[in-house]
Amino acid sequence: MCRFITTAMLGLAFGLSAGTVWVHGQTLPKYLQESGQETGSEEATRQRLNQRTVFLGGGSGDSTWLRFADELVTALDDGDDMRVIPMISRGAAANLQDLLYLRSVDAAFTQLDVLDYFRSQLKTPHIEDRVQYVVRLPVAELHVTAGAAIVSLDDLRGRKVVFGGPGTGSALTGPIVFHRLGIEVEPLFIDDAAGLRMLMDGDVAGLVGSSSKPVDFWLRIPPNAGLHLLPVPFTGALADLYVVGAFTGLDYPNLVPPGQRIDTIAVPSVLAISNAPKGSDRFRRLERFTWYLFNRWDRLTEPPFHPRWRDVNLAATVPGWTRFAPAEDMLRLGQHVSGPPPSIEDFQAWLKQEVHTAPSNDAERQAMFRRFLIWREQHAAQ
């Protein structure tokens, strides 16, 4: 299996938009491998497993985020060396709250409008310093579903509309979009399954969801249910947080007539992490997770994994937010390093020549390794 070259054995991938550098037989860098633990000790086993396990906030049962989380479990699993534990959650909005306040949540999927809402509306203190991102993910399209009598978003004015359960991305995105478009509705915050039953029974006029297409829940709506997806106009009032999206019959043959395109808006999403202090246990767990994510990215872009993984540009940035330093290093340094990947022997030779002292702990060794990569990059360019 080809694997992505990263911080210690570096390369760069840009998703589908640019070339990719690969290496065979990649192994975890030495500075990310724990040592000095007694084998056979139960306490050593406990420490080892905790150092190599990341808890990831996904989404609700039918969400794309939960499928993404489950697929990361499969792609990154490396026995006792790397384990991802996915968590069923309320959704993108609750995920950020969990990331901020729950001790057990290391990483989570969320949306940019959620990040902005916590910063600008909830006034969450120093949120930019407490949450960072690893990669920018595919956009989450706004799914507005209605019956045949509703032909435009404006037809929902003054009527009952389901925006998903509390904590979901749509429970935040939906009201923001409707308010900015000047369409006041009677919002209901209940789960999608109950909302769909109410829509089909005529108790509500619309059902709104925010998730990366195609979503299994929307695919399972019967084609004879008399429902369809409504267009959502992209206006200047939405341009600061949202982008243009669309649905076709290839996405939802049960909701979009053949040959038609339904325009909508979409919200950029991210894989966010808790900004742990360098050298801490959480930082090292997240660094290991990031290393595996980049190194095994090729696995995620092949069937049977969700096709939207192939839309990810690993180098894409999130304006106003900071990328996790190890991920930034993997991208920045790997973009320019040429020739064979650096080896541990190269690093040790550099230490003797340039530093003259050996690192006294893992954190210092890690910092010196990054200095070595920068030195190597500069000399390769000369």
Give the mean pLDDT: 83
**Helices and strands: which structural class?**
alpha/beta
User: What is the H/E string?
Assistant: EEHEHEHEHHEEHEHEHEEEHHHHH
Distance between the termini: 33 Å
What is the CATH C-level name of the largest domain? Alpha Beta
Helical fraction equals: 25-40%
Written account of the structure:
The strands form two sheets. Strands 3, 4, 5, 6, 7, 8, 9, 10, 11 and 12 form a ten-stranded mixed β-sheet that branches. A two-stranded antiparallel sheet has the order 1-2. It is α/β, with parallel strands linked by helices and 382 residues long.
Task: State the gist of this model.
The chain has 382 residues and is of the alpha/beta class. It contains 13 helices and 12 strands.
Sequence-ordered SSE layout with sheet pairings:
Layout: E1 2-4, E2 22-24, H1 42-51, E3 53-57, H2 64-76, E4 83-87, H3 92-101, E5 107-111, H4 112-120, H5 127-130, E6 131-147, E7 160-162, H6 169-180, E8 186-188, H7 192-201, E9 206-211, H8 216-219, E10 227-229, E11 243-248, E12 261-274, H9 281-295, H10 297-300, H11 325-336, H12 344-355, H13 362-380
Parallel strand pairs: 3-4, 3-5, 7-8, 7-9
Antiparallel strand pairs: 1-2, 5-12, 6-9, 6-10, 6-12, 11-12
